């Protein structure tokens, strides 16, 4: 699935939050959306998962305008894991994941074998099959994120949008989740705070500042020490990770 964002401006209460943003995510590419707090990352993502209609510009999937699609068709093309994915009702893990099958069903349709198979496979992919009958509310933060990812996978959408998926997770859960996301083979658009994560996992990064694209390209071409200091206000050392060999960014205060 190829995602193209062209000239998108988004407003909240008539106040522009992002302005004139262009972005392309090629099929199977992991695109990281990074920038300081308040730069417009989450707002831009909302225009992609249809929570906020752009004031101007177009969001298209394989050439089709996302906002002109019927809701169910759009949901079959893109899935989302947001920052605020907690559920307050007492659902089992399997019930939470089954919610991802809604775009494939009519209002009164019963659960079919294909739905059960999709739920089981999604839980297996995120290594949470053991918890199918557990209450979602009893899981740890990292386990909940994996279940919410399984719900998105159950939609069987080729584009996955994630808004700071490692937020509030411990370091082991963060790395495990990013390894998993990277392995999915989907087109990924992910807002990230951690520059080291962006460098290690993303194929392409787009840096937002004050609602506009400041730079975009391969992580090591964009995230130079000079650029990181200018945009993020920290010193940066960039080189191979001493354990993994992946691109690594260490930061310190100015």
UniProtKB/TrEMBL annotation:
Keywords: ATP-binding, Nucleotide-binding, Transport. InterPro entries: AAA+_ATPase, ABC_transporter-like_ATP-bd, ABC_transporter-like_CS, P-loop_NTPase. Residues 3-235 form the ABC transporter domain. Transmembrane segments: none annotated. It comes from the Bacteria. One of its GO terms (molecular function) is ATP hydrolysis activity. Gene3D superfamilies: P-loop containing nucleotide triphosphate hydrolases. Pfam families: ABC_tran. This is ABC transporter ATP-binding protein. Signal peptide: none annotated.
